[in-house]
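Hello Y.,

Per our agreement to keep a running log of every chain we model this quarter, I'm adding this entry. I've kept the format consistent with earlier entries: sequence first, then predicted structure.
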Amino acid sequence: MTSSPRQPTALRRSILILAFAVYLALLAWVVLWKLEVPWIGDAARLVRPIKLVPFVPSGDAGASTPIEMLINLVLFLPFGLFLGALAPSWTWVKAGAAALGASLVLETVQHLISTGSFDTTDLIVNTDGALIGWGVFALVRRAAGERTSVVMSRVCIAVSALALVAATAFVVSPLHYGPQRDIVVERSTSLP
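Predicted structure for the entry above:
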């Protein structure tokens, strides 16, 4: 008995969706809790400033470090790859909007639960990372032609598997990001 040509495509898409779900779960865990045990900070009920001016220090918030921006760029690159694989008919504008929306949700949640602060630099860099991933997809589509779906599925599944292995290795290793702490901005109450 032979299988219809639609079954492998449907199976590949299902596996790709599962791999995307794994990636999104890991992305949320990294952004919100830095691969530590999930927690909610005591400052979650406090009003805290939001950094609206990107790339430079503003108010009590310092500028994002180059390594932090590079990490955010790399973390969101697979987002663009997955969008290309799952929605190849989308334009880069639609992919960028989806990445911006996902980044906005993560920044808002980390601010609300006090595991990080809202920073517009992260929104920009995360979206750029996803757009770079989308650009890689566009290059693969140009080079692979009709095999793009197969190639991108394999790349995305490999990326999720590698991310899962890296996260597991980090969790079981003695290395850790740092102590869990509330993100609270200290303000001086005395006037100059």
